[in-house]
Amino acid sequence: MELRQIQYFIEVAKREHMTDAADALHVAQSAVSRQIVNLEAELGVNLFIREGRNIRLTQIGQMFLEKMQQAMDVIEQARREIEENLDPEKGTVRIGFPSSLAAYLLPTVISGFRKEYTDVKFQLHQGAYHYLIDSVIKGDIDMALLGPVPKEEHRVKSEILFMENLVALLPTNHALAKKPSISLDELRGDSFVLSPQGYILRDLVIHACKQRGFEPTVAFEGMDIDALKGLVSAGLGVTLLPEITVIDSLPRSTVKKKIEEPRVTRSVGVIIPRDRALMPTEMLFYNFVKHFFDKLSGYQQ
Hints:
Elements: H1 3-15, H2 18-25, H3 29-43, E1 48-51, E2 54-57, H4 59-86, E3 92-97, H5 105-116, E4 121-126, H6 129-138, E5 143-146, E6 156-171, E7 181-183, E8 191-194, H7 200-211, E9 217-221, H8 225-233, E10 239-242, E11 254-261, E12 265-273, H9 280-295
Parallel strand pairs: 3-4, 3-5, 7-11, 8-9
Antiparallel strand pairs: 1-2, 5-12, 6-10, 6-11, 6-12
């Protein structure tokens, strides 16, 4: 069984089409077909059911695909470890982040890092809170920047980088728009625009309101920070956002207001897997991130 056969098999299984797989692999279709036939002959079993030009995996093929993907992950991990041990300053960091950290925090940190380590490459993965935690646990990414830092997930190691305030975002025609700051209680009767259920930012806002004795009326939902900003800009409600998300991009027809009572905060930090060691390049970046914010002790955005 050759590595090339496994690579061809995985690509065909993913696309369920020989020609499409061959195009993706930049080889002739006949080469792909021949390798698949040879692989099936060596294993003594059909991995695919042929249906005209389309093909699909047999039950045994599904099982074989799962095992081969795991094997390829191990091979790729070994290759990266060798390369990075030879030169940690030329490796790759796979990092995840939510939309709330995409516009300002992540670019700032990576820019600072690249000034010192110009040859390190990054694979960036944006996703929702729980997806990012699962991705670190599974090994799909090396680490993730998150807010808030998970407290009860024991399969990751968490490092708090700083604490951040949430601010109110209001339409400019709102009755409180001219006040220098507001209390959360003053938004009791407003319609809110929030993230959908299951999103951590929604949970933070609802928890803060419940602590003041009311549950916000949710008029509209937005999947990401830009969508929430747009809904407020259209005058469809108010929201609470991490302050870092409105540093450089306050939408038109909106104002941000500091919440004096109570202060609504979240922790922002980095998580890494607890059950496996970071590779050299990953550790280089992880230590840089921690030192970056150590220098900015008391950092608030």
